[in-house]
Write a structure and sequence with these properties.
The structure holds two protein chains of two kinds. Chain A is mostly helical. Chain A is 73% helix and 0% strand. In chain A, 23% of the residues are buried. Chain B is mainly α. The radius of gyration of chain B is 17 Å and the shape is elongated. Classes of the chains: A mainly alpha, B mainly alpha.
Chain lengths: 168, 101
């Protein structure tokens, strides 16, 4: 086994393990713990991006998700006092129904994956560096790029409006 | 053994299933939101893997847009949760049943 294979399995196991601890942590029901494990999930996923040669996206993933989104989550968790929430019981029927339906969807996914023939001849050669991605982003995808900036503006206005003290 | 597209897709599917399970199972709005992020990340991983093994960068540009939209979505969603909490003093989905018939 070469180093890349070992690293893939390490990062995949970390991603899935920490992802499991985000949704169901046996030791703590505190949302802060979930947020911290979400950071770990995202960082190990950035490792997978590096293995896929998507260097720019790995950096963006860590900057935007671990740096901005999770901090926002932590802000809100601290803002809301959720102590009483952690003590509530999880309903066993809900867990059971959820597990069955999610298992069915997962079975469909994995079955279709098993039935697919993959082309293994061609070797991947692309590199997702800043220069290559920037060229594509500002040439073929310049209109979506501008639309996304408008979307961010709309989100900003919306958030300011929503967080005003009296909504009415 | 060479790591191929199918390995990355398996991880992506498992992560998506985890996120979906979190959305269905958990009752705390914030944890549900984090599970949504997990699902978005699973889609991102699949897109990056497809982009790598098809030798096209377009998938990565799409992931870039998804990350941007996810950031906007999180900010608006969290503002909604805060506004809801101010009115109801709860971030628990079982307390938010006023639209139930």
């Amino acid at each position: 086994m070469d180093l890349q294979t070992i690293l893939f399995y390490v990062f995949a196991a970390l991603t899935l393990g920490c992802g499991t601890l985000v949704i169901a942590n046996p030791l703590s029901r505190n949302p802060v713990t979930s947020a911290m494990f979400l950071v770990l999930t995202i960082i190990s996923m950035a490792g997978l991006f590096v293995l896929l040669h998507a260097f720019f996206l790995a950096a963006v993933q860590i900057l935007v998700y671990a740096g901005a989104v999770i901090v926002l989550f932590l802000f809100v968790i601290m803002l809301l006092d959720l102590k009483a929430e952690a003590l509530r019981r999880i309903k066993i029927y809900g867990v059971l129904a959820g597990a069955v339906s999610v298992g069915a969807i997962l079975a469909i996914f994995l079955k279709s994956l098993g039935a697919t023939l993959f082309n293994t001849d061609s070797q991947p050669t692309i590199e997702g560096g800043t220069a290559e991605l920037g060229k594509l982003l500002f040439q073929s995808y310049v209109l979506p790029f501008e639309v996304v900036s408008v979307l961010l503006l709309v989100a900003m206005v919306g958030v300011i409006l929503l967080s005003k003290k009296n909504l009415d | 053994m060479q790591i191929g597209l199918e390995h990355y897709l398996t991880v992506s599917f498992l992560l998506f299933a985890l996120g979906l399970l979190g959305v269905v199972m958990r009752r705390n709005l914030l944890v549900i939101y984090m599970s949504l992020e997990l699902m978005l990340n699973a889609a991102n991983l699949a897109l990056v893997a497809f982009s790598r093994f098809n030798n096209k960068l377009d998938g990565q540009v799409l992931v870039f847009f998804i990350i941007t939209v996810a950031a906007a979505e999180v900010s608006v969603g969290l503002a909604l949760i805060v506004a809801l909490y101010r009115r109801r003093q709860s971030a628990h989905v079982e307390d938010l049943t006023s639209m139930k018939l």
